[in-house]
Structure of Trm112p-domain-containing protein:
Amino acid sequence: MRLLTHNMLQCHVKKCTDPALNFPLQLQDIELEQVETEENEDLLLNLINKVDYNALTTTAAQLGLVGLPNAIPKDPQADPAFMTRLHEVLLETNITQGKMACRGCGHVYTIKDGIPNMLLAEHEI
Ligand SMILES: [Zn+2]
């Protein structure tokens, strides 16, 4: 799964509702793969408004992915280096294996072969 997907996942255990804790899920034992895709400016500009940029930069730093500024540039379109790095981090960086732990309830979601397992046990639903 791409880092974009991770940026949109929050813990969905029933009693885990604190937005300060149930997002973003903490990545652990992660294996990454870069998959080149064509850069699409319109898509990126659209995604800039949808992603949680603070969560993205925090996660990127934890994974050792450098080069994203702390804040989105005022005119991202005029900053091709930013657009390219955002594209690489958000859309070309894939998590193939690992775990995502919730800071709120401790639930651990596993990622296997690029697919996150978001299923819960019956008592967590
Ligand atoms: Zn949780």
